[in-house]
Amino acid sequence: MAFSLLVLGLIISVILIVLGMPGLWIMIASAITYTLVVPGRPIGWLSIALITGLGVFAEFLEFTLSGKYARKYGGSKRAGWAAIVGGVIGAMVGFPVPIIGPVIGAFAGSFIGALVGEMSVGSTTGAATRVATGAILGRAVSTAMKLGIGFGIAVWIFVAAMH
C-alpha cells in the first residue's frame, strides 16, 4: 500500500512540474515520508540527500535560464534580471488560475520583464522584443530541463523504493 501511494505521488509530482507547481519538492517529501514510515530505510538518506541536491539544482536552472537567454539574445543585465523577476511575479499572479495559470504567468512575466527591462536602457521596441523572445525560450528550456531532472528523480526514488 505504501509503495502504491509513493508511485501515485511520484506520478502526480511529475505532472505538477509541468504545471509550474512544486512537484520536485513533493517528490522529495514523499521519499522522506516513505523512508520514515516503511521499515528498513528503503530509500536511504544518501539518496535523499542527492535527490535534494538535484532538486535545488533544477530550481536554480529554472530561476536563472530565463535571464541568461535574455542576455544571450542581446539583452542588458537589467533585462536579464527583469526577466527573472518578471517570471517569478508572473507565476505568483497566475497561481489563482487553475491548472495552467502559473505556467502562463511565468512565461508572460519573463517576456514582459525582459521587454520592459530592455526598453528601460534605451533599446528599440524591435530589439527589446527579440530579447524578450529569448527570455521566453529560456523559460521553455528551463521548464524542459526541470521536467527531465524531475523525471530522473522520480525514477531514482522508484528504483530505490523497490529494493
Give a structural overview:
With about 160 residues, the protein is mostly helical. The chain has one domain. It is about 85% helix and about 0% strand. It is built from six helices and no strands. The protein has helices spanning about 1-20, 25-35, 45-70, 75-95, 100-120, 125-160. Helix 1 (about 1-20) runs antiparallel to helix 2 and helix 4 (about 75-95) packs antiparallel against helix 5. The longest helix is centred in the C-terminal third of the chain and has 38 residues, at about 125-160. The radius of gyration is 18 Å and the shape is elongated. The two termini are about 15 Å apart.
Write down the secondary-structure element order: HHHHHH
Number of helices: 6
Uncertain regions: pLDDT < 50 for 5+ in a row? none
Mean pLDDT: 93
End-to-end separation in angstroms reads: 15 Å
Q: How many beta strands in the DSSP annotation?
A: 0
Rg, alpha carbons: 18 Å
**Any idea what the shape is?**
elongated
What proportion strand?
Answer: under 5%
Structural class computed from helices and strand pairing: mainly alpha
Number of domains: 1
Main β-sheet: number of strands, strand sense, barrel status?
Answer: none
Please bin the fraction of helical residues.
Answer: over 70%
